[in-house]
């Protein structure tokens, strides 16, 4: 089927070229030759020229027809975008309470039908069809954020070369993570901590034992931990993480949403001890970059590719989705099959603090304030 | 006209604003209550001689009322500041309530001790500074966030995004030598197969001619001797004819394939030190891998065949428009 379509489109191309020539009035041979390479190649003597003219006239007739048709189709196409065939007057036979629903349903059906009609017209038009409109999604209509980071931004690069995570990215430190929880944590929180330990290599779990966070931070610094995760719980379920980069790095608080343990997944695999790769998707703003760098610091530098483990932090509309997979390339590296390994959860950044954790005197770099900041659905910060 | 029994009977059986109905026992909400229970002995309203201990801003006071002052509501309670030292405070209580009922004296002391305990705990917590701050959770906000999260999850197309990223990394060459199907090598292989295809087509055209000449060279020596000689020579020795040279190329390709096989085997060899613990299994694995390699090669050939078919179609496509234009 494919080659046939392309032929059609080629026809259309040649037709369009001719139409343009008509408009200009005199037909230049050069243009003509451009349109039809093979005729040009054949000969440049006089007799073939006559032949050409005959050919031209024939094709012109065809073209005029198709031109009209083309306009007609285009008009039809535009019309099918706007006009709805159903109105609310069509449902007057129904009781008032059902009219709205019926109209909505009919309009939906109508929309689908018009979509199909348009696709048919597109097929007829071939290459001369108008461009498809880009669908309006929340992502594509996102409000402009002045801190959006471009690929090459010297200022940002300079900042990032000198921030708290620079030692990790310069390979001066290797990550060592301490995981702890609220005092008197319940079993699900412990379970969550063990799941985290499974995902993050070189992580150790300590029970809190009612020790103050500040003293924990001091102790962790002494033992050369690079990161501290404190899992908070509410109604016996983990509901938040304080993520503190040590020794002087920033502190972030994430809310945990929709947590699914490995055992509750429909299909899951057993995690291996190889160092995983990390995927950080969609962290675009300056703040997002910082968070992404912070998250990257949890994992060792050189992932073992033979383990085929991958940990993903995917940011979509300020929700950071955590996933843990084992992958396998199939079909000679054109596809990747995924098997889920670890827990699933969603993080939502609530605040970011400069320095290590200090609830009273800490300097907040960023705090999510609902009334001031959530003014629009299309405004995102990460 | 103080009559405790009448008061109690009214409060107990009828209405009392301080009654708190809870499951195991009835409690009293009156702040002057000594025990917090609702009963005859500890009711501050139905006892005209009554005493209690209260804490105000960390300081304990002994409150006592007697029937003589019952008609002066303003001076009803006698308030005595208790010492911060608990033992002294206990002595104070026992002095003040010297001839009172044992029940009241005992309960006042118990209450004082309890108050001191919670004061100590409060001070400790204040010093340690690990006070929890309770933050209300907006139910509607929560619901909205949940819903937005669901929508974001749908919009994220996570599996697709992850797969895309992984494939991009593979293409970039992040994985190095871990995988054999590097994209460049794959594309090269494709190009090679295309070349082979063209060559083969030409070979098919040439074949009948060469066959004829061979026959002529062997048996006929009459008509075109020169040509015959050339052709014969061509057959006997190495000649610069197209077909042979192309055959050479094919040979080279096969050699390359063999080389690549060797490389794979070498890779296996590199893996060996990693699995030193199990020597007997290793050989089996190796054999299996070899078989796999052979299979891969076979698959590759099949693919080549498929590719040939595709290219032929393209060839037709190129031809047709020319014909049309000429006509």
From TrEMBL, chain A:
Ranges annotated as biased composition (Acidic residues): 18-46
GO BP term, example: maturation of 5.8S rRNA
InterPro entries: Brix (IPR007109), IMP4/RPF1 (IPR044281)
Pfam family, one: Brix
Compositionally biased spans, kind Basic and acidic residues: 113-125
Highest taxon of source: Eukaryota
GO MF: rRNA primary transcript binding
Organism the protein comes from: Caenorhabditis brenneri (Nematode worm)
Brix domain segment(s): 175-358
Annotated stretches, region: Disordered: 1-55, 79-140
Biased composition (Basic residues): 94-112
SMART domains: Brix
Database matches in Gene3D superfamilies: Probable brix-domain ribosomal biogenesis protein
GO cellular component: nucleolus; preribosome, large subunit precursor
Protein name per the record: Brix domain-containing protein
Coiled-coil region list: none
TrEMBL record, chain B:
Family matches, as Gene3D superfamilies: 3.30.390.110
Entry GO terms, CC: nucleolus; preribosome, large subunit precursor
Compositionally biased spans, kind Basic residues: 282-309
Protein's cellular compartments: Nucleus
Residue ranges of every copy of the Ribosomal eL28/Mak16 domain listed in the record: 6-118
Nucleus recorded as keyword: yes
Predominant location category: nucleus
Record keywords, A-Z: Nucleus
Protein family (similarity comment): Belongs to the MAK16 family.
PANTHER family the UniProt entry points to: MAINTENANCE OF KILLER 16 MAK16 PROTEIN-RELATED, PROTEIN MAK16 HOMOLOG
Name used for this protein in its record: Protein MAK16 homolog
Organism: Caenorhabditis brenneri
Lineage: Eukaryota, Metazoa, Ecdysozoa, Nematoda, Chromadorea
